[in-house]
# Entry
Amino acid sequence: MSVLAYESTPEKATAKKARSVEPSGSRPTRYLDPGRIILYSVLFVAAVYYLLPLYVMVMTSMKGLPEIRMGNIFSPPMEITFQHWVKAWDSACTGLYCEGLKVGFWNSVKITVPSVIMSIAIASVNGYALSHWRFKGSEVFFTILIFGSFIPYQVMLYPLVIITRELGIFGSLSAVVFVHTIFGMPILTLLFRNYFASLPPELLSAARVDGAGFWGIFFKILIPMSVPIFMVAVIMQITGIWNDFLFGTIFAGIKNFPMTVQLNNIVNTTQGVKEYNVNMASTILTGAVPLCIYVLSGKYFVRGIAAGAVKG
Amino acid sequence: MQAAKRPNPLFKNLQAKIAAIPMIAVTLIVFLGCSIWTVVYSFTKSRALPLEEFVGFYQYERLFKTSRWLISLENIAIYGIFSLILTFVIGFTLAALIDQKIRFENTFRTIILYPFALSFIVTGVVWQWILDPTLGIQHSMQALGWESFQLDLIADRDLVIFALLIAGLWQGTGFAMVLMLAGIRGIDGEIWKASRIDGIPTWKTYLFVVIPMMRGVMVTTLVIIAAGIVKLYDLVVAMTNGGPGIASEVPAKYVYDFMFARANLGQGLAASTIMLTTVLIILIPWIYLEYGNKKQKS
# Structure
């Protein structure tokens, strides 16, 4: 149960400072060192590669079609216009309907919010039971759960269609929420289990002596202590569920398609003139939510990734 | 905590057992039940609906006679090998560069990781546009005067898989970088002092000391990335939709199309069973390794 060292960065940083103080031969003048120039150049080139698509996306979305056909994709627009963004949001066509991405946006919200709440509620209780209230066989279920997270979704798709159909929810928002809750369970359970297990057991013993039970300890002691890990889970789930495509296509039904599915339908419809600017505006709008969360959450997002590599 | 034995074993931890019911249900019904269902029904004649008429390996024989499936397998193999190698090389290189006490470390890290926050659909759509042979990079470079510039991967049957690779690497290398950086930072600072005293150059220390010490992180990264490669689907749908022709089809897409679009369930189930087998082949040695390690520790 060793969490990757990312979370202990502060100590490591000081350790590194200590290491850099060590004298090691003649100290080079730091900023003219050719090695460092190469280092920064390589990093700069890498940064350009990673930023290029974002740049192209934004530039294209603000150009007119004639300008796109004439010019090159890197050049900035001659005059900036946001009308394509408005069109993408309000009236872009996805096959049959021309109601724009806003429909998909609200569907994605309606899918993401309950899925995030449900999956975290269930997984945190799982993690709690698995870390502090182990029962006979609990580790077996946990192992299957983790194993299950590696099974390709395709393997379980059709049976899940049957199950959701039997439950009478296939083709509705509830079906997508149901499926997201299931497939969010392994990683989230792992996340919570490892976090709760790292808390001092004396704390729980003390609470038990005072008469607190399973739920009492969970709500009064663990949750208030675990706000950061809940943040990590929320961020992980929002980006993951927002970016989902497969479950949205299969389980939501045409009226409830999430934003990613709608984006794909807008861009890859074969009818009519390809409006590259509207396509790119749609892409930005679809990517905007996870991107904002990424930028705002920074540290938590990275911790979520590291959690994916936690060894249980 | 377990040491506190209570009289009735059935009611011991009753609350915890009740709380764990959703988890138990999911593991048994979905992860075990559904997978077994798929494997079993892959041996039937199911077409539009599941049928209990068993036909042995018929679906598999047909599967491996279908050129679309064979192309899918070849594609995922090429994509997988290149993606694994390049993700590791690029991810580790970037992590090692960022580890050099650089300025603006956070800025670089943020830039390299942001694509990972975007969906494969967004990734696919953007790269489809950038690599567009008539209006994308190729067109721009030629318009700028580099007449012989060629980059029409996406329209080339033989090279289209590399177009997917470029997009996939753009999206996923940041993730590998973050894991590797965590691994590098997790290594004891004493190692660096020792290698410095011995006068070993930095790059050699990374290559021959740090990487072997990062075995755990490397294996974890490998398993996560490999499991992700098998699932490759959204990116293909958004970027090429399997085209040109069937040149960029992948197994996950084969499964989806045969199950839901072509009403040929048997084929879809057989193909997904092959996917499951592949994952197990990757997974079992890993679990064996992990399990073995734990035994040693205890």
Q: What stands out?
A: The first helix of chain A runs from residue 9 to 21. The CA atoms of residues 102 and 260 of chain A lie 12 Å apart. The two ends of chain A are 5 Å apart (CA to CA). Chain A has a mean pLDDT of 84.
